[in-house]
From TrEMBL:
Biological process annotations from GO: protein ubiquitination
Pfam assignment, any one: BTB
Pathway info: Protein modification; protein ubiquitination
Domain MATH: 32-163
Organism: Miscanthus lutarioriparius
Protein name: Uncharacterized protein
InterPro entries: BACK_BPM_SPOP, BPM1-6, BTB/POZ_dom, MATH/TRAF_dom, SKP1/BTB/POZ_sf, TRAF-like
Family, as annotated: Belongs to the Tdpoz family.
Matching Gene3D superfamilies: 1.25.40.420, Apoptosis, Tumor Necrosis Factor Receptor Associated Protein 2, Chain A, Potassium Channel Kv1.1, Chain A
Length: 366
């Protein structure tokens, strides 16, 4: 168990001469602890309990408080069937007790480390009280994704919970004269794109037209900088045709360029569009967008998508995505299923060195 201390102060000045009341955090102490829940007999536990039923871990202590984990192998309610639901519960009968805590739940690998794609954490403190004794994640891990991974060994699943209990927080009154809002630059640039005010270049993509601003594109992408302000022929063109790209993908890329955020994508189309958006990000040197897409694709890997995803990762130098594919294929049953597909044969023919690397990783010689 360990403790940490932090201190901060706030000082703000008003525009209308009127003082606003606020408070500053003077000091905060946090106590941390961990507990590992082992589900031995994962398959039979899931089958026998079913949806809406849970098992409790043994009680453990963190920060002077008792806690336990509630594990639902097939979701806590009907709408969460097919998911593991998991909650941290404060084990106390005193109605006056309130505890502020953050926590992390994560599936463990063989080395006892969290598996990032099967981990969730709270970003702020939750208050555990008589009204809300437990907090957690109703859709913690997809059973399908977990069961297709290599993290259930000998029918045993290990989940660790790290708890950070906040204690000893004190505040003091300060005078707040100006309330500074968060940046809304992305909204202004988003409006600039949607309104096309001052647009000085047009792109034709698969028959659709998109108005944009040369300076914005050049500031965000070294490729657009070269195309629009360098010696390339596009410099003098008012309408530029973009080939080998869907209009929806180009539109999503423009949205990111102007707002630094991903647009909303229909769940049904998410894998395909994210796949093509990663290609576009690599093509136009948008490294942050490329990493966002890579991270999202890591969450979509299963036996039906792993071959396509592995080929994409190899072609565009996505090492994290490649490792995620290898991780899925560590399972002998998954590897056998994938090797029987036509896609695997095509990948073997087009990139034999990648298949050689794969087999060396997942099926090392004794």
């Amino acid at each position: 168990m360990s403790s940490t201390n932090a201190a901060s102060a706030v000082g703000i000045i008003s525009s209308d001469g009127e003082a606003l009341t606020t408070s500053a955090i003077v000091a905060a102490e946090a106590m941390t602890g961990s507990h590992v829940l082992q589900i031995k007999g994962y398959s039979i536990t899931t089958k026998e309990l079913g949806n809406g039923k849970h098992i409790k871990s043994s009680t453990f202590s963190v920060g002077g408080h008792r806690w336990y984990i509630r594990y639902y192998p097939d979701g806590n309610v009907l709408e969460n069937a097919g998911w593991i639901s998991i909650y941290l519960q404060h084990d106390h009968t005193d109605a006056a007790v309130e505890v502020n805590a953050r926590f992390v739940f994560g599936v463990l690998d063989d080395s006892g480390k969290y598996v990032p794609m099967f981990s969730s954490e709270t970003s702020v403190d939750d208050t555990f009280s008589s009204k809300n004794r437990c907090w957690g994640f109703s859709k913690f891990v997809s059973r399908k994704a977990l069961e297709e991974s290599s993290y259930i060994r000998d029918d045993c699943l290990k989940i660790r919970c790290d708890v950070i209990v906040s204690k000893g927080i004190s505040t003091e009154a300060t005078m707040q004269f100006v309330l500074v809002p968060p940046s809304n630059m992305h909204r202004h640039f988003g409006s600039l794109l949607s309104g096309a005010v001052g647009a000085d270049v047009t792109f034709e993509v698969a028959g659709d037209m998109f108005a944009a601003h040369r300076c914005v594109l050049a500031a965000r992408s070294s490729v657009f900088m070269a195309e629009l302000f360098g010696p390339m022929k596009e410099k003098a063109m008012n309408c530029i045709e973009i080939k080998d790209m869907e209009a929806s993908v180009f539109e999503a890329m423009l949205h990111f360029i102007y707002t630094d955020t991903m647009p909303d994508i229909d769940q049904e189309d998410a894998f395909v569009i994210t796949h093509h958006l990663l290609v576009a990000a690599d093509r136009y040197d948008l490294e942050r967008l490329k990493l966002i897409c890579e991270d999202k694709l890591c969450m979509c890997i299963d036996t039906s998508t792993v071959v396509t995803t592995l080929a994409l990762a190899e072609r565009h130098g996505c090492q994290g995505l490649k490792k995620a594919c290898f991780e899925l294929l560590k399972s002998p049953s998954h590897l056998k299923t994938v090797m029987a597909t036509e896609g695997f044969d095509l990948l073997l023919a087009s990139c034999p060195s990648l298949i050689k690397e794969l087999l060396a990783k997942v099926a090392p010689c004794p």
